Structure formats: structure tokens, C-alpha cells
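sry for the spam today, last one i promise. C-alpha cells for design, 189 residues
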């Protein structure tokens, strides 16, 4: 009886392992992000607001294009529309700084050859006369969206700080430039 239990246990572990390519938790995390959106190619405009690093890392499905830091900057707390041309300025623990800009869906990403920071890092976002500075340090997470989850899920909101955004409710948000894909997460205008 004990032996049978052992065999069942081992074979179910083996099956789970085969089905999930080794790490069921990791695979489930990736799966929970959903499929690619129709009409958005796998490239710089895809998956705005998602934790890029989950896939763009040595063990992920986009291991060919790893990023050292990546994320998305949105217009306002209650608006998941990406903002282009936002300067993302980061400084690491050795004092090394790197500055990059968001594209027209609000995405930015840093490749290892550009900057490979020593964590923890500090982050600040700026466009025109608007800026926001994260007070705390980013300990080791390479995706802003690890903590800054889309607040459109009210459940997630309880446990996250919401997406990164630049403008206050009273600000006039600049008109987005023409973009190959819709910069609003979830479609719509
Ligand atoms: C669910 C997995 C997944 C997530 C999340 C994801 N990507 Fe990708 N991405 C891919 C795959 C797969 C490819 C195509 C294979 C490759 O290029 O490695 C790709 C390709 C790309 C490319 C083109 C490759 C290159 O080197 O130029 C860019 C740029 C890119 N993604 C940016 C991002 C950004 C920015 C984010 C976050 C906002 C993100 N991706 C989130 C899976 C993902
Ligand atoms: C480890 C979790 C975590 C990660 C990763 C993270 N943040 Fe934050 N962020 C926070 C928390 C918590 C706050 C609120 C307190 C504070 O400002 O430190 C915050 C606040 C901010 C603010 C200020 C918001 C305001 O209203 O003034 C900005 C801007 C910001 N983060 C940008 C970023 C960017 C850009 C990235 C990715 C490079 C990032 N954060 C990654 C947790 C995180």
C-alpha cells in the first residue's frame, strides 16, 4: 500500500514536471498574462503594463532578448493609456545612472549592453514640467510591474501600488502621437 502511494506520488510529480517544463509556478505566472493581443507583433509595443522581465530573462521564453530593467509609464492613476517620450532616469547603488525614454505605448526597456545596474536602484520619471520620483529603492526587481500592477483589477489593487503614472487628475494629458498600436491597455479610445 505504501509502495503504491509512493509510485503514484512519484509519477504524478514526473507528469507535472513534464507538463510544465520544470517549473509549474513560473509557467502559471506567464500563462496568467494571457496571449499576445491580435495585431500587436512581439516587439517593443507589446504587453504594455506587464512584467516584461518574467519573459525577457535568461530562463524565459524571450531569453534571446533579456532586459536589465523594463516597464511602462501610463498617463494617470485611473487611466491605463501609455505616455510616449517620458524620460525614465535611474541610478544604481554605485552611483551609475542611465536615462531612457518611453515609446508610444509607454514602454521602456534597458538591454544588458546599455546598462547593467547594481541593485538596489532609484527611479524617477519626467516629461516636460511634470516629474515623479519613487521614494523607496527598487531592491532587485527588474520589472516595474512586479509591484506596479494594473489597478484595473480591484483585487490586485489591494496588494499593489497601481501602475506607474505621470499626470495628476487635473493635468491636461498631452495628445498621444500616432502609434502603430493602440496605447490604451485593453483597447478602446
Ligand atoms: C509573456 C512573455 C512576454 C512578456 C511579458 C513580454 N514579452 Fe516581449 N517578447 C516576448 C517574446 C516571446 C518575444 C519574441 C522572442 C524574442 O524576441 O526573444 C518578445 C519580443 C520582444 C521585443 C523584440 C525583441 C528585441 O530584442 O528587440 C521587444 C523589444 C519586447 N519583446 C519588449 C517587451 C516589453 C517592453 C515588455 C513589457 C512591457 C515585454 N516585451 C513583455 C515575450 C514577452
Ligand atoms: C519593489 C516594488 C517596486 C518596484 C519594482 C517599482 N516600484 Fe515604484 N513604487 C513602489 C512603491 C511601494 C511606491 C510608493 C512609495 C514610494 O514612492 O517609494 C512607488 C512609487 C513610485 C513612483 C512615485 C509615484 C507617485 O505618485 O509619486 C514612481 C514614479 C515609481 N514608483 C516608478 C517606478 C518605476 C519607473 C519602476 C521600474 C523601473 C518602479 N517604480 C518599480 C514600489 C515599486
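last one done:
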Amino acid at each position: 500500500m505504501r509502495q503504491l502511494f509512493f509510485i503514484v506520488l512519484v509519477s504524478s510529480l514526473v507528469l507535472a514536471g513534464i507538463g510544465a517544463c520544470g517549473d509549474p509556478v513560473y509557467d502559471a505566472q506567464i500563462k496568467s498574462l494571457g496571449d499576445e493581443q491580435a495585431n500587436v507583433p512581439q516587439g517593443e509595443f507589446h504587453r504594455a503594463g506587464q512584467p516584461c522581465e518574467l519573459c525577457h530573462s535568461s530562463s524565459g521564453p524571450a531569453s534571446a532578448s533579456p532586459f536589465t530593467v523594463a516597464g511602462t509609464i501610463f498617463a494617470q492613476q485611473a487611466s491605463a493609456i501609455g505616455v510616449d517620450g517620458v524620460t525614465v532616469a535611474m541610478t544604481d547603488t554605485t552611483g551609475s545612472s542611465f536615462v531612457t525614454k518611453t515609446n508610444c505605448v509607454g514602454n521602456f526597456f534597458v538591454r544588458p549592453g546599455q546598462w547593467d545596474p547594481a541593485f538596489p536602484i532609484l527611479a524617477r520619471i519626467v516629461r516636460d514640467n511634470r516629474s515623479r520620483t519613487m521614494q523607496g529603492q527598487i531592491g532587485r526587481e527588474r520589472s516595474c510591474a512586479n509591484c506596479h500592477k494594473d489597478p484595473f483589477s480591484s483585487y490586485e489593487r489591494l496588494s499593489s501600488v497601481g501602475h506607474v503614472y505621470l499626470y495628476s487628475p487635473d493635468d491636461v494629458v498631452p495628445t498621444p502621437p500616432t502609434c502603430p498600436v493602440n496605447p490604451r491597455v485593453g483597447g478602446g479610445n
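Residues 69, 71, 88, 123, 125, 132, 134-136, 138-139, 141, 144, 146-148, 161, 164 surround heme C (ligand 2) (CB under 6 Å). ok im logging off now
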